[in-house]
Amino acid sequence: MEQYVIKGGNPLNGEVEIGGAKNAALAILAAAIMTDETVTIENLPNVRDINVLLQAIAEIGAMVDRIDAHTVKINGSFIKDVTVDNEFIRRIRASYYLIGALLGKYKKAEVALPGGCDIGSRPIDLHIKGFRAMGADVDIAHGLVIAEAEKLNGTHIYLDKVSVGATINIMMAASMAEGKTVIENAAKEPHVVDVANFLNSMGANIRGAGTDVIRIVGVEKLHKTEYSVIPDQIEAGTFMFAAAAAGGDVLVKDVIPKHLEATTAKLVEAGCKVEEFDDAVRIISDGKLHHTQVTTLPYPGFPTDMQPQMAVILGIAEGTSTVTESIFENRFKYVDELTRMGANIKVESNIAIINGVARYTGARVNAPDLRAGAALVIAGLVAEGITVIDDIYFIERGYEEFDQKLRGIGAQIEKVSDEKEIQKFILKVS
Length: 430
Ligand SMILES: CC(=O)N[C@H]1[C@@H](OP(=O)(O)OP(=O)(O)OC[C@H]2O[C@@H](n3ccc(=O)[nH]c3=O)[C@H](O)[C@@H]2O)O[C@H](CO)[C@@H](O)[C@@H]1O
Ligand SMILES: C=C(OP(=O)(O)O)C(=O)O
What we know:
single chain; 2 domains; four-stranded mixed sheet; 32% helix; binds uridine-diphosphate-N-acetylglucosamine
């Protein structure tokens, strides 16, 4: 098992390049199997979830040709099996996109119930409601979602809750249904738009992605395309928050600043300076942060995937802040770990009440999930002394070369795999 070991206290300065969005790329990879022609996808993040999904796609027979770390060619014409199940696929969330993709193309899918971060109960009832409304029989048995239809019909679907996964999944299946599907109360996240753009580049007919109402006219066939995934707004936001907490001056490159507006707004409220360029944002912080209030909401609101990182910076801001989590009921699991580092946070229902402390102190902590793990890294970067973070495989689900990118802007962080290496790092930095 690997750990990150961090010596806190260095300001962050310099430039960091952001990769492709994990949550867009996962859906795009699944959608790529919907044509029998070869699809080329660029700007893939080289992270664990992507590799798990690519392996599952290869296992059902598709050609998966990894051109380099960030480019893949996929050809779905060789698929001979619509059953997707292995021990790794069960642990990721985005496996559910293979239901929409296979059902749309082959009218049949048997896919392991999805996993993902343990941040709440995470049902997929809205996905199932959508597939059923299109005429599919959907059953859950032996840990698999089994969906089948003689044909899929366009339909009108109202999502009771704004769901990124259900919006994208229904959009995929509807792309190859007969007739027109309307999704109301659709999610508007940038990755919903990116997946719609990708499907349209394969010949789908999707209008309205990025608004509350998406209209899809099904087509018989999709064709080859070459597509580049949008930048990862959550990776970008994480580096912005790291710079805010540690202090310094960091240019976060290869981003779409519009996607970062909610994050930027909160950083400015907390006392940082943020400059926007065409495809970069510069964050300047003296490390002296103010209290504020944050509520997570669907896009364009403040992203739930940035909530733990936000709480970490408010933990060392002057005064009392509140963070309200309105999407997932169990996304404060990092609070106990942060408390070990000196934070003063009380969680009441879905609200964290944060009394800012003067400093964090290094400790040995566990990454409870992906974003919480990244948030604990930020805490380690500003803490006095040494922080060791266990279970970093969660972090590696979604951040490519996190330690290397942080070192590039001045952090003292290393990935280690045993106690000896931890001691070696401590000797080196003391
Ligand atoms: C792989 C991926 O892209 N994961 C992202 C995706 O997760 P995911 O697709 O799981 O999140 P959703 O947007 O679907 O979930 C939003 C809310 O709707 C609820 N819900 C969802 C579906 C459903 O059928 N029934 C239901 O009740 C969920 O429990 C949650 O309370 O969007 C989340 C919200 O931006 C992000 O935190 C995750 O990083
Ligand atoms: C929660 C996340 O991922 P997943 O939905 O795959 O668990 C995330 O990306 O922050």
